[in-house]
Amino acid sequence: MVPGTVSRRILVCSLSAILLLTCFSSCGAPSTKQANFNGQNPSSPPEALSSTSDPQAVRVAGRVEGQQRANFALLRTPPEGLPTAVQRALGNPVFGSNWNLAQRIPTIASGAYWLLPGNGYMCVVSERSLGSNTINTTCARASQARQRGIAAVTVTREVPGSQSKAARLIVGLAPDGARQVVVHTRGIAETVRVHHEVFVLNDVIAAPPDFLTPR
Amino acid sequence: MGILAVLTIALLCSAGLASASSYCGGQKLANLKSCRGIARTQTEVRGMGNLHSVCVGAGSIAGGCSTGPGQWVSTHLITGPYFAEPWIEDNADGETTVWGESLCCA
Questions:
Q1: What does the domain layout of chain B look like in residue ranges?
Q2: Under an 8 A CB cutoff, do A38 and B23 touch?
């Protein structure tokens, strides 16, 4: 073998190794944390919430966790998966959510909603309507979702002098056995019926709920 | 062949990266107040309140809201990068500590 060829190969291999090492150190962390823009600190949630400090660092769930499956009938049916366009909009999975395990939430409410099982977490993805410029995701610890249910909330505030009126749409999933969900907002409790685990509330309160109580 | 591999690796490494910057990190919000970060370009904003539910958004775009404490809510701006102040808003009378994060551009 020609010595020049060998040294070129060594050079290429070395470069590849350096790039691989750089890649593993950066690709494993999908977000590049930067300095706090507004000079406030701390920039990360405290230690008690450290598992949520980087939602993209959670390992993607290979299958639906047993307790999630046991508490939500929707997760015991074959998954539809998230549409490709929605996946593209979301970018990277958070909280270990597996897009192939997504379940479309059956509802007549405007928009499209999916329950997304994750790794110790559950998320609801909402696409309000065709042509809407946002897709929202709400994620809660699976233990909280099993106790409280989980929902997507959009709030529209009234703008004085315009056509925009206050409105709120909540589309959520209650755990197995719940017949109603009480939506608590700033001292107001509204009771919503649950149909096949799904509940929908359309009202004029311009604030998200403080918490939900399935019963 | 080796150079091709190097280029492929470099491309793969750069493709999935989104830069994240925090805003309003650790701010205590009380009495339904909101907090705004310095304007920046973003394709996603997300946030969490440790004691109350929160809503997030950017500029005039109102995003999603959480339904309880400790939940993360993300809003993806599907029309593309948007230059505005990201914001996070407390929902209740009492105090809550919030964390916001703005992401751009995967």
A1: 18-104
A2: yes
